[in-house]
């Protein structure tokens, strides 16, 4: 290998300091100059006489933790490392160390950046324990160090020219290949020292070490002390940079170019465990030759056997060689009996060679597939192999043992890429032959004799709806032909909201939309839906009714039709049956509406009848002969396109990208099936087959999907628990043996109770406590004899999601009570029709991730942290009528046991009790008892008064007016949660709605406890949230609901929301709902729609009253209807219910915010700001925006728009708070179901007198502002103070400093603040820079940020100190701190905002981010920085914001 040059010199001055013993290894260094030349390295050994270098190095200890090293020997290695650390100068700017163990796989003990003190490292070493393992994979471990330790993220300072050192301690020869990893590590210029003990291989040690003289071989581990003596002088030379390696770039080395390689391997039992390991080793050795990364070579692995096409990992899963090799070591064989290679090839084509799975084929990166199989495939391989070839995937086929050579030949893209060996052990013999095409193939060109699919891209906008016959009158084998026809039609067009839109409807006796015109704006998503299409079924074909349906419900603007914009409208009817009704009238109506109809007939369709539909014989196409399909495709495309005859291109179009399936997620699924005589032996096989078909789609295993099954009639009986079977085959076999339990009565409620208590438990295999989603699938055929609602609510509260399936005599209302949501209720006429709903049932199973325990979070805003410590005012309102009096002892005992669990005190929980029948009677108010003993004694003295009439409404009104008052002990002024617990058993004689609404408006959260005789509808009107309604069988059963009540009662935290003045009731309001319509929302879009529907009744919609608009967004933004479109509540509700999801992969919230400000809140969009209307935006989003939201949100605030934000799931909280008008108007729910519980009463709560400063964006031409640096001057900052000074100087450098321009001041603080100079101290930039350069660290042990903030407000931001705060000049405070404050800072943020001072918060080292964010003017102005060196990374961003943002105080 040729290098630019080498040089080696040893200065005498440095050798003088070495002892005779030290000199020997140092002189040996001369010998490895030639080796270094071969490696492309240069060694320098020098020291200047004038300057002694600062000691610094990054040292990683890589130690053998395998079983070869005995425990006592491992302790000696432990001591050896500890002693070396003791001798080193440890520190963040000196020497850093890390420790990694290796055996089968490497594992990190701690990183370089983990500890910056000697004490910290030695303490961490105390927790070092031997991992064990049979192998010693040094090659894998070295690669692991390059990927995970010698990188900046782990603390490596290689970029700062700090020496990188590896000390390897090994006990035997490596069990894997080390060559590649050693070469790459040395190319990085790493100093590698190797200490060998016991059976270490001396030759291998020399290959690994930077030089043979850097190896120390010790047959006995007890001699390691001598190794330390030899190592320390060399480490000292390295740390002082007296020993330097310079890396010369090799010109001869050529890396393999980018490529995507997928290995499809045989995982069947015929392979056997030993052979499977040989196959894995073969793959490992090959991929080890590549540079792995997102910009280099990517590798995926898929196993195939019988019904499995198991993705081990995708192309974009592992981006480093070590991660890939580690994954290979964890690979395990599936072990099923038969091999379906054809299905596996199809699976790989559809799910792996896609952009989502990491494929870069669209970027021109070569796509390679390596198939290794040892058995003949049961299914056909030719068709899927040809599809791969047409897609230009280069397939290499390797047959072993019993593989069918003809099939292998079909799979390989070319005979030269076909390999066959007799045994798996012989795979290594063909490694180089396989490596050659893997490394060199760049692509293939495939030509076809016949013209292929037409490609029509440049077409005008058009709306195309397919109306497809989904009845059983046609044969099921025709469905793929229809799917293919629709797919190829879609592929020919440019799909998008501004291009071609497509809708799809299936019909038989009735029509059902698959997707609307505006559902998908992405071609890939649309094609994915078409490929998953399932036959609707039905024996009657009503084409006329279906045509009416599409005319009325699909070709309208709410479903996406752009007819009003002049976009051509097309309907493509595909049918296989006779028309049994008159269609002429509907056909004429379609024609009058400007819709051009095309009809395609197959099977029994009569072409003459179809002409009545199209009104044009040229638009009827006969597809009865399969050979005519390509010709019909051409003609239909010609008619749909405005272009001339479509051009024909060689080569098939690329297959659509299909979303990666999610069946492999962990789930616990329990089937609860009706085993009564209602079902009977005739229907049981249908249920068995349905359950088996569901299980076939799932990835069964103890760490994946678990399934349990319970049969019931009058009682429930477990067939098998969740943890009984861990293999799919065993599950299927057990279900095949299922027999009917029998029984005449059906008690579904008791069965639901049974599964909650005995099946969804840890002992029965439930992983609920590990946050694994819990599903119950109820299948029943009759009416339940007992109550279902209470046990189903209990299941819901325990986090179980119930899907209810009814057949024959099942009662729909009972199914709805049992199910998690009405959308999860399915009804079929007979059990044999269960296959019709299979796909519908699989959808929630594969997409729902869990249910939030809604009873914990029913309020305006709730948080789970420290709930039990928050003070509350709790009023118990108890019915004491003659009816309730009979069970009053049980009521009193229940009340006693609840209060006993509460933390009672003046500053904790306060309790009042009120009894009522005709009138309310106060037993004691909130401030009566502060001692729990006294309170419990008062409860024991309670007696019922009795009464015949019950006036619950009057009682609630009395509680609001007399008990929830300051005089009675209420603490509402302190934002203390106000809770009312109502216990009743009778229907009220008076109206309850008005009183219940009054309670809600007063932010009093009402819990309701009822019994079966209570009026359920009335209780639902009263309760604050449906999930705070508890029902007991009778008063004696109250203890059974005690825990359910206590949980929300003790953990609920209520945030009181006050809206800015002028946006509450009694004013005209413009309200815009901006909702996330991206594909990420998926099937849950209807829950967002329902959320809006539930809010609309709160508004007084009218021309001169409230106006509402709905806008959907994803990558772009679409107005569903503007502010001035609807003038009454009924029309608004109807319009919202018609909403259809927009679709789209991207989410650009910033662009959407900008859009609604400019186009929806504007006068032209119906906005009435010019008429004095308040403007409110309610944003609902499901994930972090892909664009910037800071400036658009600030501009919204400046425009006076009050933004409320609701985030769903894993959203970025800081982004929500930034967008919201104020942080208190941002909300987050765990999942979409939580939307139903987020009762946004803040829209109508109360007028606020609080003013919120609005930060307007101003032009860059403004050059006047007052900027004060408030700097932490405590001892913690230490040497970092120089960097902080430099940082301040850089900021100042970017401004035009002077009188009438930008002014600067500096204050330092620790225990107390000290002003270094005021805003008016220095009038020129030069003087400010000189003053900053002269600053000295103040020092001090503690910091008091609160005191410092008070100081700058009272002493620096004042006219006498030079502040121009009274002249509307922007006031900016830059707080930089590196620790936690010792004083109170809770009030300062509000004070600063009210003064109009914008605070930028910079947190270094141990700064408390939780404190920093609230202090900053907005979360976006909080900058956590790991070290002072990171200040340079935020300097430019900080400057830009300071130049463009100002604050004005709203009067």
Architecture overview:
The protein is α/β, with parallel strands linked by helices and 1451 residues long. Helix content is 31%, strand content 19%. The protein starts with 11 loop residues before the first helix and ends in a 7-residue tail after the last helix. The longest helix has 17 residues, at 71-87. The chain has a six-stranded mixed β-sheet, with helices on both faces. It has a six-stranded mixed β-sheet with strand order 11-10-9-12-13-14, with helices on both faces. Strands 17-16-15-18-19-20 form a six-stranded mixed β-sheet, with helices on both faces.
Based on the model shown, name its key terms:
single chain; 1451 residues; alpha/beta; six-stranded mixed sheet; 45 helices; 31% helix; disordered N terminus; disordered C terminus
């Amino acid at each position: 290998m040729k290098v630019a040059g080498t040089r080696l010199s040893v200065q005498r001055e440095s050798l003088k300091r070495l002892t005779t013993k030290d000199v020997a290894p140092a002189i040996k260094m001369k010998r490895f100059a030639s080796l270094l030349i071969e490696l492309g390295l240069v060694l320098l050994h020098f020291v200047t006489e004038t300057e002694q270098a600062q000691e610094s190095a990054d040292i990683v200890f890589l130690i053998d933790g395998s079983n070869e090293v005995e425990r006592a020997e491992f302790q000696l290695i432990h001591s050896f490392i500890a002693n070396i650390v003791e001798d080193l100068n440890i520190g963040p700017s000196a020497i850093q160390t890390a420790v990694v163990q290796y055996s089968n796989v490497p594992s990190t003990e701690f990183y370089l950046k983990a500890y910056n003190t000697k004490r910290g490292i030695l303490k961490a070493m105390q927790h070092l324990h031997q991992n064990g393992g049979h192998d010693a994979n040094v090659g894998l471990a070295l690669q692991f160090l390059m990927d995970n330790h010698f990188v900046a993220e782990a603390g490596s300072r290689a970029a700062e020219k700090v020496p990188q050192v590896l000390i390897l301690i090994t006990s035997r020869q490596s069990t894997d290949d080390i060559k590649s990893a050693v070469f790459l590590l040395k190319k990085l210029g790493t100093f590698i020292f190797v200490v060998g003990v016991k059976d270490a291989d001396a030759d291998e040690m020399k290959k690994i070490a930077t030089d043979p003289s850097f190896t120390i071989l010790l047959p006995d581990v007890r001699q390691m002390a001598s190794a330390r003596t030899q190592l320390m002088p060399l480490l000292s030379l390295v740390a002082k940079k007296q020993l330097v390696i310079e890396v010369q770039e090799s010109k001869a080395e050529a890396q393999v170019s980018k490529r995507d390689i997928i290995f499809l391997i045989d995982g069947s039992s015929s392979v056997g465990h030993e052979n499977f390991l040989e196959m894995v080793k073969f793959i490992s050795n090959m991929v080890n030759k590549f540079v792995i990364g997102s910009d280099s070579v990517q590798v995926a692995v898929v196993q195939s056997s019988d019904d499995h096409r198991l993705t081990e990992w995708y192309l974009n899963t592992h981006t480093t060689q070590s991660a890939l090799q580690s994954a290979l070591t964890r690979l395990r064989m599936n072990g099923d009996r038969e091999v379906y290679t054809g299905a596996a090839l199809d699976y790989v084509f559809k799910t792996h060679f896609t952009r989502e799975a990491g494929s870069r084929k669209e970027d021109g990166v070569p796509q390679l597939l390596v198939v290794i199989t040892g058995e003949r495939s049961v299914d056909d391989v030719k068709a899927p192999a040809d599809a791969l070839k047409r897609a230009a995937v280069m397939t290499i086929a390797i047959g072993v043992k019993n593989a069918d050579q003809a099939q292998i030949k079909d799979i390989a893209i070319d005979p030269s890429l076909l390999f066959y060996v007799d045994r798996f052990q012989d795979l290594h013999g063909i490694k180089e032959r396989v490596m050659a095409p893997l490394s060199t193939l760049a692509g293939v060109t495939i030509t076809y004799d016949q013209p292929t699919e037409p490609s029509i891209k440049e077409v005008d906008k058009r709306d195309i709806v397919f109306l497809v016959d989904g009845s059983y009158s046609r044969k099921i084998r025709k469905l793929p032909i229809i799917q293919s026809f629709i797919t190829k039609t879609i592929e020919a067009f440019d799909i998008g909201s501004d291009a071609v839109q497509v809708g799809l409807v299936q019909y038989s006796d009735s029509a059902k939309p698959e997707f609307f015109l505006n559902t998908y704006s992405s071609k890939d998503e649309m094609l994915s839906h078409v490929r998953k299409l399932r036959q609707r079924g039905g024996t009657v074909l009503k084409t006329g009714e279906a045509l009416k349906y599409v005319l009325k419900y699909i070709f309208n603007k709410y479903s996406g039709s752009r007819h009003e914009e002049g976009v051509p409208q097309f309907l493509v009817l595909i049918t296989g049956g006779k028309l049994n009704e008159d269609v002429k009238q509907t056909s004429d109506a379609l024609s009058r509406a400007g819709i051009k109809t095309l009809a395609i007939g197959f099977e029994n369709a009569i072409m003459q009848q179809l002409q009545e539909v199209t009104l044009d014989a040229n638009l009827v196409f006969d597809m009865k002969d399969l050979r005519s399909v390509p010709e019909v495709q051409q003609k239909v495309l010609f008619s749909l396109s405005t272009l001339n005859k479509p051009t024909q291109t060689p080569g098939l179009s690329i297959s659509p990208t299909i979303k990666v399936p999610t069946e492999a997620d962990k789930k616990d699924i329990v089937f609860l099936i009706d085993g009564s005589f209602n079902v009977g032996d005739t229907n049981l096989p249908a249920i068995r087959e349905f359950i088996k078909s569901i299980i076939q789609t799932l990835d069964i295993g103890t760490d994946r999907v678990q399934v349990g099954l319970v049969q019931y009639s009058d009682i429930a009986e477990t067939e098998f628990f969740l943890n009984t079977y861990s293999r799919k085959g065993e599950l299927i076999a057990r279900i095949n043996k299922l027999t009917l339990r029998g029984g005449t009565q059906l008690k579904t409620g008791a069965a639901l109770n049974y599964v909650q208590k005995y099946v969804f438990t840890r002992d029965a295999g439930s992983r609920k406590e590990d946050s694994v989603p819990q599903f119950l699938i109820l299948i029943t055929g009759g009416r339940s004899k007992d109550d279902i609602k209470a046990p189903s609510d209990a299941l819901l509260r325990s986090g179980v999601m119930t899907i209810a399936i009814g057949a024959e005599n099942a009662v729909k209302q009972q199914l709805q009570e049992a199910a998690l949501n009405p959308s999860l209720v399915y009804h079929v006429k007979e059990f044999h029709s269960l296959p019709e709903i299979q796909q519908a049932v699989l959808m929630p199973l594969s997409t729902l991730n869990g249910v939030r325990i809604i009873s914990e979070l029913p309020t305006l805003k709730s948080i789970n942290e420290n709930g039990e410590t928050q003070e509350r005012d709790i009023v118990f309102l108890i019915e004491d009528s003659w009816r309730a009096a009979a069970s009053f002892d049980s009521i009193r005992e229940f009340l006693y046991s609840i209060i006993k669990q509460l933390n009672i005190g003046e500053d904790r929980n306060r309790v009042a009790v009120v009894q009522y029948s005709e009138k309310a009677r106060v037993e004691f108010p909130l401030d009566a008892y502060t001692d729990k003993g006294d309170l419990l004694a008062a409860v024991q003295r309670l007696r019922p008064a009795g009464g015949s009439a019950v006036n619950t409404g009057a009682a609630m009104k009395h509680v609001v007016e007399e008990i929830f008052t300051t005089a009675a002990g209420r603490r509402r002024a302190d934002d203390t949660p106000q809770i009312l617990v109502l216990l009743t058993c009778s229907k009220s004689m008076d109206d309850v709605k008005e009183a219940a609404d009054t309670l809600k408006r007063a932010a009093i959260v009402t819990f309701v406890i009822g019994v079966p005789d209570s009026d359920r509808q009335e209780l639902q009107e009263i309760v604050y949230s449906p999930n705070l309604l508890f029902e007991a069988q009778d008063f004696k059963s109250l203890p059974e609901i005690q825990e359910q009540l206590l949980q929300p009662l003790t953990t609920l935290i209520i945030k009181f929301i006050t809206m800015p003045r002028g946006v509450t009731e009694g004013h005209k309001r413009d309200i815009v709902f901006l909702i996330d319509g991206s594909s990420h929302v998926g099937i849950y879009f209807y829950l967002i729609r329902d959320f809006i529907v539930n809010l609309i009744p709160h508004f007084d919609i009218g021309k001169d009253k409230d106006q509402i608009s709905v806008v959907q967004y994803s990558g772009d933004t679409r107005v569903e209807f503007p502010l001035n479109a609807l003038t009454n509540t009924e029309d608004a509700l109807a319009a919202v219910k018609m909403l259809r999801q927009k679709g789209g992969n991207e989410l650009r919230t910033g662009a959407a915010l900008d859009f609604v400000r400019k186009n929806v809140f504007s006068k032209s969009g119906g906005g009435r700001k010019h008429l004095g209307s308040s403007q409110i935006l309610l944003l609902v989003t499901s994930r972090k925006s892909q664009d910037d939201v800071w400036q658009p949100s600030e501009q919204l605030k400046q425009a006076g728009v009050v933004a409320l934000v609701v985030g769903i799931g894993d959203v970025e909280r800081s982004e929500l708070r930034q967008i919201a008008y104020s942080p208190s108007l941002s909300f987050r729910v765990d999942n979409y179901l939580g939307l139903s519980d987020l009762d946004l009463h803040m829209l109508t709560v109360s007028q606020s007198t609080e003013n919120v400063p609005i930060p307007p964006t101003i032009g860059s031409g403004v050059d006047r502002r007052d900027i004060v640096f408030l700097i932490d001057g405590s001892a913690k900052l230490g040497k970092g103070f120089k960097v902080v000074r430099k940082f301040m100087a850089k900021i100042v450098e970017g401004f035009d400093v002077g009188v009438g321009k930008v002014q600067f001041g500096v204050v330092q603080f620790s225990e107390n603040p000290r002003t270094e100079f005021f805003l008016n101290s220095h009038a020129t930039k030069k003087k400010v820079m000189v003053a900053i350069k002269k600053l000295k660290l103040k020092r001090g042990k503690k910091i008091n940020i609160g005191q410092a903030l008070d100081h700058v407000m009272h002493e620096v931001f004042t006219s006498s100190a030079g502040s121009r705060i009274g002249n509307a000049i922007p006031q900016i405070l830059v707080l930089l701190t590196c620790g936690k404050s010792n004083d109170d800072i809770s009030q300062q943020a509000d004070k600063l905002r009210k003064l109009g001072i914008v605070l930028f918060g910079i947190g270094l080292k141990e700064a408390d981010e939780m404190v920093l964010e609230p202090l900053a003017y907005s979360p976006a102005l909080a900058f956590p920085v790991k070290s002072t060196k990171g200040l340079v990374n935020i300097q430019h961003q900080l400057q830009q914001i300071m130049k463009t943002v100002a604050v004005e105080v709203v009067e």
